[in-house]
Design brief:
Largest interface: A-B, 126 and 126 residues
Radius of gyration of chain A: 26 Å
Oligomer: homodimer
Number of strands of chain A: 14
Number of helices of chain A: 15
Distance between the termini of chain A: 79 Å
Helix content of chain A: 40-55%
CATH topology of the largest domain in chain A: Rossmann fold
CATH class of the largest domain in chain A: Alpha Beta
Strand content of chain A: 15-25%
Largest sheet of chain A: 6 strands, parallel
Order of helices and strands of chain A: EHHHHEEEHEHEHEHEEHEHHEHEEHEHH
Number of domains of chain A: 3
Chain lengths: ~425, ~425
Amino acid sequence: MKTYLNPKPEQWTELAQRKTVTKADLNETVKAIFDDIQKNGIKAVKKYTHYFDGVSIENCRVTTSEIEDAIAQVSLELKNAIQVAAENITQFHLSQKEIPTKIETTSGVFCWRESRAIDTIGIYIPGGTAPLFSTVLMLAIPATIAGCKNIILCSPPDKNGNINPAILFAAQLTGVTQMYKVGGIQAIAALTFGTDEIPKVSKIFGPGNQYVTAAKQYAQQLGLAIDLPAGPSELLVIADATCDPEFVASDLLSQAEHGGDSQVILVTNSEEIVTKVTSAIESQKAILPRQSTVEKALENSRALVFQDIPTGIEFSNFYAPEHLILSIEDAESKIKFIENAGSVFIGNYSCESAGDYASGTNHTLPTNGYAKNYSGVSLDSFIKKITFQKLTSQGIQNLGPTIEIMAAAEQLDAHKNAVSIRLKKLQNG
Amino acid sequence: MKTYLNPKPEQWTELAQRKTVTKADLNETVKAIFDDIQKNGIKAVKKYTHYFDGVSIENCRVTTSEIEDAIAQVSLELKNAIQVAAENITQFHLSQKEIPTKIETTSGVFCWRESRAIDTIGIYIPGGTAPLFSTVLMLAIPATIAGCKNIILCSPPDKNGNINPAILFAAQLTGVTQMYKVGGIQAIAALTFGTDEIPKVSKIFGPGNQYVTAAKQYAQQLGLAIDLPAGPSELLVIADATCDPEFVASDLLSQAEHGGDSQVILVTNSEEIVTKVTSAIESQKAILPRQSTVEKALENSRALVFQDIPTGIEFSNFYAPEHLILSIEDAESKIKFIENAGSVFIGNYSCESAGDYASGTNHTLPTNGYAKNYSGVSLDSFIKKITFQKLTSQGIQNLGPTIEIMAAAEQLDAHKNAVSIRLKKLQNG
């Protein structure tokens, strides 16, 4: 982790640079697999599962008895923890429900919005040794609250043709309606086109490797919506003399263990804090199992010492971090200055892990500077808001002349006529 | 407009088909212009303005005196109409402001969301004979309410190097901060990279021809957000015996005049209504100036007679129209059945023109079936919602064990450690 003292604004662009991921050009591979699955359906899906995951799957859909087996396999301790987290996530996403407000903009002209669930959505959960059941909670819970009718989960099978029990437990707990043992590009293609076994969805959520990311982008080109543009995970901590350097070190490390391409940034107003945090990182790192990943991530990482915390916050807004921890004096009073961030953790006891798992906030967040123009996943991600309007006969008489003048000025005579014909009939009637 | 009697569900996919627009492959052109502008900045922008718009522009930015001249040129009648519309649009979008709700998910664990404006946004307004000042209102008003600091408008200059006065009037009225005489691919490229004169933006809004659409898609690939995927405009009217066939005809025609690729669909429960509406279309069409456009649009259009209105609504949800007019008995009581639509107009006096111009709702809406998975433009389109959380020392003690168990089960030891280190210190302190 390289330290920079009082970096000038000219340097900020460079300091806000994420590690450039040399994206392999996967477009041809993605297109070939999509074309094959569009043409040959589930047969092609199974062919790719055999090829990529090394296992032959007869029925992609997870059966009720497989789910029951999975439930039996998860420890009571983990079940309880998942349930506590699920309750908090439910509470927070329930609080995002909007009550429609009908307003009368002109006498007799009523306008309002109502939310409707996206009917059918897909949730992709990556495979691998660590079962990302927490992501199941973060996506299936708001989908269920929104009222999505079909919540389709896809996750690659292991060598024995199974999905990790904790994932299946979380899925059945949170209202996933169908679960399929399929991963990678073939999962995204199946959700895009629909096949005999796996239905077509309108929006795809969830993380994945570069193949899944490329496939989601391609699905978006074909008309599906996706949750967020992808990028490696990142954390920026702003710390002053009131921070606990050991806590800060533990937070930076928790982000660094996600992957070698993760980035952590320490922003502070004191060199001494950098020294203390760096030394705490060294000692804590020693006992972590993912040491080489952490070290790789720390190579992309930086400590920035600014003249004061307000300048540090300015840099943070410029960087637009996915996660932002404020370990500074009177932190909550400073949040009004935060312009760009995915999720903000306030004070010394609000570690990022809390939001990753159990506090209630969503952990699917904008990375790579996208916090400047995107929100993280929330209840909003699973609904559309439809506008409604009702004009009474008085309403069209009040507003009609305005519409006629504007339509005429835009040379849209039929638009004008739709009003005139109504006004005329009302005059004559 | 071809009529279909009781079309079976197997036919629905075909009947919901939009006109296939054979998109020219513009990617190479777009990429070449983007590369040139990224490298050569405003000089390249001006070169393309000269080439495509046939006019040499010295300063792209519209000056204060140009704006003053424009204001003087707009008729008082149109100014007043625009002001009435702007007030309604302001009221409706103000009503979309969210008041943050802080909730305590676990004792000592507080979570909430706050909105922040996207700092810098671009608004693209097409050129041509008809000045689309209404779109300026629909985009600049919510941007101003959101608090966007820089609201950048680009619109192509005419042969004399000017933007239509009504566009400039609407822009200055609604809080646009900078206006530039630049259109087409070069405008989108300038907004994507920023140049000496035109600043870089984070999100681009607004309609455009196939060049602008392709350029917006390319900008999205480069990390910018865009408002909505593009497609030709469309209207579906559901009408029963309570409708006024002349009103319905006028609404269908108002949509049809937008372009030859527009589509209008009449859904009803009676052949007689089709006959009446068709005959009203014939007589109203005769006096419209855009007759050939209307006729071309009507070729892509359909009248569908279903056994009853509920089946018609089901088809409408399947089609997912951009605009939906309900000219049916007790229309407002039926809106709970509407699942997919951009904007809904209730009853015989709620013509689409009202929402296009002045009722208050936004007219930037999802086309081409995107109403299944996208909302129209609203205040939300100009903000991000950041999640905040604060755990007290009691909060981390209450929730910490849950996080530790989950992190361990996902094999993320550093995530667990960020909690453990805090719990330990609290025990010892």
